[in-house]
Design goal:
- The protein is α+β, with helices and mostly antiparallel strands.
- 50% of the residues lie in helices and 15% in strands.
- It has four domains: 2-47 and 333-504, Multidrug efflux transporter AcrB transmembrane fold (Up-down Bundle); 55-122, 2-Layer Sandwich (Alpha-Beta Plaits), CATH 3.30.70.3220; 126-315, Gyrase A, domain 2 (2-Layer Sandwich), CATH 3.30.1360.200; 533-590, no CATH class.
- The protein contains 16 helices and 15 strands.
- The strands form four sheets. Strands 4, 5, 6, 7, 10 and 11 form a six-stranded antiparallel sheet that branches.
Length: 591
């Protein structure tokens, strides 16, 4: 008895601690958002996307250095360049498209800063630079930083772009401080002086480089393509490669570069050259030979898609594109506040219907569902508001749709849990035992369900474009919030309620009344155990009709039976009827 009481106390204490930790999480998120609001950097309301808030529309005319017209394929690449720049500058939910096959239209929420305008107009800058040093993408801080005495000290003036004398103490400090982890490397990189060394990130690998001055400009690329390589016998090897062809000046420059780099083949990584676009390293291949014909081939772990992407990026090194803003105007929300209000009303109607159903189906237990939905809603609101401040996330109408859909998915988790508890009660368990055993079974189902939701959201986010990604994001965010609420609020609350007199005693309005649920104890006293019983199996049945509330419980028990349980009950009733008839015949004969 003492062990049972100690176990109960631990369970109750654990439930209380979990709820306290959830409260701490809410306080922390609220404090973060409040601090941002007080400093003027954040707002309690989520940021709205272009379709709900309006913003600025700019029409850009692509221009080349030579003044030549660009074709449709080149315009598509120009759109991709602009998209990378806008995303890298932190502007979310921007829409970028083409107009009349000649111009690029950029629509973004709010008013773009002067820096964003300059960034959009800047020329696409592709260069070839030799690699001087390679490092991990994370910044070096504290005691791990090189001591002043250990900093590189150039011994002479650099003689070529591969000379390590370019690495001064200041350059090395900048290299250590550079953050090239994926989330930081995706941001727009500042322009660098082509005559000086540069620090650059490879967003794909997360590595960072110290690069020498520019040796070959992208304008010297005549064309680029991709395809599969062939062996010495002309057979296809199945390996994808990118092929570059330089013009006359580029051929001469690249021959000189590869002669020097090939001579450094035992001094890795100085035998590498980096292909840099807009401050990011696209590729940093190792020099395997002296290229005299201006037709190098880049091989490696390419897929068809990655080889195609690199070749297309290289093509436009030969065509440096700048963008002239032809017009700029403020645009109103394409959907407006009325549509947003309709979406909110739809969500409130759905929430109200879920609440009504919960109270009808689970009586006062339904208030646990309502409270859980409120907690999940507040948690999601805080997360979206903080993401709007820290990651410039903006809520679109598609995102609002994701939040509305999430109401039903969140309610599903509670329904699964409550139904497992009620099934345990029908098996004859007490309320406390039913909560414990029901949770053990329900949490596996909840975890599997949310894993599927998260997987669908992640796949949809990465394969979709535009506002559909907003829908996928909010769907995934609410799935995570749902798990937090179920594990840290709903279950602990049920553990505590099961110990109260109202719910633990199975009050008829609690939603956990064993008799109303058709519960039959497994052990019925006097050596009798529970048998499958039907309320009635048709004419001639030997079952005795229940009366009052027991009749309702019997009908509920019958309704909840599986097909196998129903057949077993019918067979049991039939067997008892046969025994009764046999007993009656025997009595008659004795008489």
């Amino acid at each position: 008895m003492a062990n049972n009481r100690a176990g109960t106390n631990r369970t109750v204490s654990g439930a209380r601690r979990t709820i306290i930790w959830l409260a701490v999480l809410f306080i922390a998120l609220g404090a973060v958002l409040t601090g941002g609001a007080l400093t003027g950097q954040a707002s309690a309301a989520p940021k709205l996307a272009l379709d709900l808030e309006g913003g600025t529309e700019m029409i850009l005319a692509p221009r080349t250095q030579s003044g030549t017209e660009i074709n449709e394929e080149q315009l598509a690449q120009a759109v991709e360049i602009i998209r990378q720049r806008v995303d890298g500058s932190g502007v979310a939910e921007a829409e970028i498209s083409t107009q009349s096959g000649r111009n690029v239209v950029v629509s973004m929420p709010g008013t773009p800063s002067a820096q964003t305008r300059e960034l959009i107009q800047a020329s696409a800058d592709m260069t070839f630079r030799p690699v001087l040093q390679v490092g991990d993408g994370a910044p070096v801080t504290g005691a791990n930083r090189a001591k002043d005495a250990a900093l590189p000290k150039p011994k002479a003036k650099p003689t070529n772009a591969s000379d390590t004398n370019w690495i001064t103490g200041a350059v090395y400090r900048a290299f250590e401080a550079k953050d090239c982890r994926p989330e930081a490397a995706a941001k727009q990189q500042p322009p660098t002086d082509p005559t000086k060394p540069a620090i650059a990130c490879d967003a794909a690998t997360g590595g960072k480089y110290i690069l020498g001055p520019v040796e070959v400009p992208g304008a010297d690329i005549q064309t680029a393509s991709f395809g599969q390589t062939t062996g010495a016998n002309g057979a296809n090897t199945g390996q994808w490669a990118v092929n570059i062809q330089f013009n006359g000046p580029g051929t001469d420059k690249f021959r000189t570069v590869t002669q020097r780099l090939f001579g450094l083949k035992n001094a890795s990584p100085r035998d590498q050259f980096a292909i840099v676009l807009d401050g990011r390293v696209l590729s940093a291949p190792t020099t395997q030979a002296v290229i005299t014909d201006g037709k190098p081939q880049i091989t490696g772990n390419f897929t068809q898609e990655s080889a195609k992407a690199l070749s297309e990026q290289l093509k436009y090194g030969a065509l440096p594109i700048s963008f002239e803003i032809q017009s700029e105007q403020q645009i109103s929300a394409t959907l407006g506040s009325q549509q947003l209000m309709m979406g909110i009303i739809a969500g409130l109607i759905g929430l109200a219907l879920v609440c009504v159903y919960s109270l009808f189906q689970y009586r006062l237990l339904g208030f646990v569902t309502i409270a859980s939905l409120v907690v999940a809603g507040v948690l999601t609101w805080l997360a979206i508001a903080i993401l709007g401040w820290t990651a410039n996330y903006r809520l679109s109408l598609a995102g609002v749709a994701g939040l509305i859909v999430a109401i039903g998915q969140t309610a599903d988790s509670f329904i699964v849990y409550f139904e497992r508890i009620r099934d345990e009660l029908r098996e004859g368990r007490s309320v406390i035992s039913a909560v414990d055993h029901g949770w053990k079974r329900a949490k596996r189902t909840v975890l599997a369900s949310k894993a599927v939701n998260l997987l669908a959201a992640v796949v949809l986010y990465f394969v979709a474009v535009g506002n559909v990604r907003g829908f996928a994001f909010t769907l995934g965010l609410t799935a995570v919030a749902d798990l937090i609420v179920v594990f840290m609020f709903t279950h602990p609350t049920m553990v505590l309620l099961a110990r109260t007199r109202f719910f633990g005693g199975g009050h008829r309005w609690s939603g956990l009344d064993p008799e109303r649920l058709g519960a039959v104890p497994f052990y019925r006293g006097a050596g009798r155990f529970r048998e499958p019983v039907l309320a009635g199996v048709g004419a001639g049945s030997s079952t005795v009709a229940r009366k009052g509330r027991n009749a309702g419980a019997g009908r509920e028990a019958e309704r909840r039976m599986t097909i196998a349980e129903r057949r077993a009950a019918e067979q049991s009733v039939g067997a008892r009827a046969s025994q009764d008839r046999a007993g009656s015949t025997a009595v008659g004969e004795d008489e």
